[in-house]
């Protein structure tokens, strides 16, 4: 094992050893390095004022992604390149093209949010520059501005997309990739600070051993939830085991008629594959959160934390997902719907971790849809999230799986509604019976997001919407978003 964090900043390797394992990157930058360009707005990954960019080696190139520094822990920088707004200026002090575009378009007022916008535009400039208005909106959804109407900022993004400028990071990418390769190693990172521990293993076997040794450890993936435990709930986490260095958990592949998603696969990495394979699922991923959160958060983490309003489990359950759990004792597979036992309780034994999610590839004629209802269209937590997977034999329902999040203490299938439809015609009369049965499937709660009556009405209306979309495809049912209406 090694006991030093190693990352690249400003073209050189930095090493840190005596650090608080849950010190955020934001606080490290502002209070340790006196780099105050990265701002704290919300401390929960919502406003984007703290946006920084991380670089990871992909072959001889570097992939740059925007993340929220306020909920990223400092040891998570290990093996990566860190870029802040102060790092963008030229050697002569000249503005970076992303900064220059904002100046030329008069896209800043008080300036507090500007560094975050700059970093989001910088990251996207180094990937696929946004072109359409919807692309730009998606890229910037995680950056909030309290002064402007966003118009000038969008114009700046369009200017960058049109000119496709290069910068010093492009010019030295090969050199940076070489430095990042130098940081790679198979030794587990092991830190200790005031009796607290942080581990970052490199293989599933090492992870299993660590969990056997520390069964009460907090497993850390993207920190999009765990980060809030520290910044908002002020929890003290005695032992953390980070899975982000385990390449085997970041695999995404089709195999033997299934799609396998490693527990460490981020939303961003899974997005395109899910959209190509399951249509509507891609739009759900787009709406799950901001670009910064999608770049960090993982589907495995969304499952493992067991939230009843997690967005991906309803769709995964409707698609028939199975879960592979692993420990030193071996592996076991369970249906994903069986993993959720009760509110806050999952079928994960001491020492076990989620290794992968397996989805059957679509059958010919499958009709799959998912819908998310939230107060804000983008970057908000669901009040209700519904998923439907229908297999027709002519006009008869051969099979249907209906699952909702936000309607119970766990993501839960509507089995009575399913039984009211299977073996019968996919018709308005039989739909009416299923809607009545749906009211027996759930006893929804009232909370700050919605009342119980609202949730039940919405769930029934989403089933109606699914019926309309699969029987009257010419009817417009979606005013916004990019969900695919056909899947066959």
Which stretches are poorly predicted, pLDDT < 50 over at least 5 residues?
none
**How would you characterize the largest beta sheet?**
5 strands, mixed
CATH architecture grouping of the domain at 5-86 and 172-242: Roll
**Under the CATH scheme, which class of the domain at 5-86 and 172-242?**
Alpha Beta
Structural class category: alpha+beta
- Please tally the β strands and state the result: 20
SSE blueprint and pairings:
Layout: E1 5-9, E2 12-16, H1 25-32, E3 51-58, E4 61-68, E5 81-83, H2 97-104, H3 114-125, H4 133-140, H5 151-163, H6 168-171, H7 173-183, E6 189-193, E7 196-200, H8 204-213, E8 218-220, H9 226-231, E9 239-242, E10 252-255, E11 258-262, H10 267-278, H11 280-288, H12 291-296, H13 299-304, H14 312-318, E12 322-327, E13 330-335, H15 336-339, E14 340-342, E15 345-346, E16 353-360, E17 367-373, E18 384-393, E19 396-405, E20 412-413, H16 415-419, H17 428-441, H18 452-471
Helix pairs in contact: 2-3, 2-5, 10-11, 17-18
Describe the overall structure.
- There is one protein chain.
- With 488 residues, the chain is an alpha+beta fold.
- Among the domains are: 5-86 and 172-242, Beta-grasp domain (Ubiquitin-like (UB roll)), CATH 3.10.20; 89-166, [2Fe-2S]-binding domain (DNA polymerase, domain 1, Orthogonal Bundle), CATH 1.10.150.120; 367-471, CO dehydrogenase flavoprotein, C-terminal domain (Enolase-like, domain 1, 2-Layer Sandwich), CATH 3.30.390.50.
- 33% of the residues lie in helices and 22% in strands.
- The strands form 5 sheets. The protein has a 5-stranded mixed beta sheet. Strands 10-11-16-12-13 form a 5-stranded antiparallel beta sheet. A 4-stranded mixed beta sheet has the order 6-7-9-8, covered by helices on one side.
- Strand 6 and strand 7 (196-200) form a beta hairpin.
